[in-house]
Amino acid sequence: MSDPVRRPWTSEEIEKLKAMAGNHRREKIAAELNRGAPAVALKAHQLGISLRYHADAKASTTQSAPGR
């Protein structure tokens, strides 16, 4: 089996990665960019971008424990 072909990142892909980071899960970003999740994680790390997903505040308040 041969190694997959490596594709250079375009400036448009990098901008989309920056825009989606924190707002979408890693797998969603990878699908949008037509890249694997590990490639997205590596590029984000190289750029110093956090991929930690931040659910919006409204969703987190509706999921709080009963009585809170």
TrEMBL record:
Domain of life of the source: Bacteria
Protein's recorded name: Transposase
Species name: Bradyrhizobium japonicum
Phylogenetic lineage: Bacteria, Pseudomonadati, Pseudomonadota, Alphaproteobacteria, Hyphomicrobiales
